Amino acid sequence: MGRVFVISDHHFGHQKIIDFESRPFANAAEMDEYMIEQWNAVVSQEDKVFHLGDFSFYNKEKTKAIVERMHGTKSLILGNHDRGRSKAWWLDAGFNDVSEYPIIYQSFFILSHEPIYMNKHMPYVNIHGHIHGQKYEGQHYFNVSVEHWDYKPVSFEDIKNSLVPNEEQ
């Protein structure tokens, strides 16, 4: 297996998200193409991507066509806009696995759609989306909404490196 990536909140096919989040696209079709290109620019077929929700506003046929064009093994954690569709719907649309709940990854990272309350004494890091261009302060939160990453999935290696203070040896 290759590298592991995380990303959230593509909102494929959602014209209004362009205005809501000041995305630099003329229309949803232009946005969709750019986001697929950005995904495939960093993700190979051997890689795994955790998508933290709010993937597509399209019907199953159009959603499946997008998923099939995107490299890697894809896991979906359902976001608030994904929940109107069943787990089976998302599997049929091409995701390799689907979770209705947050996932604990490598016993340290909590992958969720919405940020989870984390007090300063908790040793975990919550990797999340949902809040788009906003950002929570502190070392307990890492926002992987597409707006922060030029619509490219973020590698776990980069996330880990950003959380570890640089120490001179």
UniProtKB/TrEMBL annotation:
InterPro entries: Metallo-depent_PP-like (IPR029052). This is Phosphoesterase.
